[in-house]
Input
Amino acid sequence: MAWRAAKSLLSLQDAFNAKYPGRSKANDGILGDTAHASRTSDHNPDMDGVVRALDLTHDPADGFDSYAFAELLRQRKDPRIRYVISNRRIFSSTESPWRWRPYTGSNPHNHHVHISVN
Output
């Protein structure tokens, strides 16, 4: 199946690449790997072939603090956001809306911020 990334995520990625041209992209990603494919993940294409998740690498040495960015997203309460995972925490627009909760998944997301959109 052909897939595409959600347009809002591509715009966000382009903006960060322009603003922080020297930032590390080691943990950036949109399309999930084989581990993601074996489970439910917004990094996998949905029924319409749209991938609705973006990871951006935490690289404060080169200007991008993903922890601070995740907090900014939480405070702004953008209705396009489904959920965000950052540094062992998660918030959602629907479950305990816009409040940080502990995230106990196998990946603590301390090397990148995960952004999922509706």
